[in-house]
Amino acid sequence: MRLNLGMAMAPTPREQVDLRTWRERLSESFVRLDVLSLRSDDYLRTRMSTAVNGWVRASTVDVRGEPHVVRRSRARTTDDGGALLVSVQLGGTCVVRQGGREAFLEPGDIAVYCSSEPYDLAFPGGTHRQAVLQVPLADTVAMRSLLGKTAVRVPGSHGLGRAVGPLITAIPRAIENSNAVEAERLTLSGLDLLALSLSSGDRISRSAELLDRARAFIAMNADDPSLTPPSIAVGVHLSLAHLHRVFQQSDNSVAETVKNIRLERAAADLRDEGLREWTIAEIAERRGFADASSFSRAFASRFGMPPIRWRNG
């Protein structure tokens, strides 16, 4: 990882960029990365700001686009020694994969991963926002503890996760007005709390892990009109009966989860100025609905108004 001394904040306006440009910008702020689109769309609307102080690097990344994967590139130009990355999900969802594990993050949730090993960040369609803390690897108790728990979700809704998430989220702005020593101490405090959270049991149960895995699979495939409970069960290596039992701990059934994700994405599409030329039928098809009439009924039931009224504000 390139270490920069002193303080810097380099915000970029939200703009439409192609995958190659976004890959280059991410690689400049993190390590060398690949960006792979899971649909035909080859552009994203992005915004990123980064603050650097001492050995602390903190970024806020905001992306809107179709499903895509950000992956640690296999090509490494330098041996940077690796970095620990901590992501707090601020909006949308993300799936973090590393070491054979995966964590499905919703707003407020936290996960750790290491840049010296292969990792994936999978983003479903829609808008996603993260705060990402990046520090060089060091032989500390907290660091050793965190490296043993990469791609493990720390819920932001309870336990120490409720304190860790806001702290890490605040670091990009906080270190702008701090000296290097203060920035480093603040970061180490956040890492200590995160390590304590993981060691004290602020982790999800096995059944919750299975639910996360299923929801992650749904999020990445919801636009596919052939997505059904049986195909989801196959995708997450569960029997159909087991899949339905897993969703009993959720507020929604498997089918309702799929429908709600599709409706939320369609609602965002209808308000997207870049899609004003798309018809409602085209947006319904884009988001996996069989036809415009069934989409309109489901939309009105969920949002209390027909799609055309929603689009017109």
TrEMBL record:
InterPro entries according to UniProt: AraC-bd_2 (IPR035418), AraC_XylS_family_regulators (IPR050204), Homeodomain-like_sf (IPR009057), HTH_AraC (IPR018060), HTH_AraC-typ_CS (IPR018062), Tscrpt_reg_AraC-type_HTH (IPR020449)
Keywords: DNA-binding, Transcription, Transcription regulation
Residues in HTH araC/xylS-type domain copies: 212-313
Pfam family, one: HTH_18
Protein name, as recorded: Helix-turn-helix domain-containing protein
Provenance organism: Microbacterium wangchenii
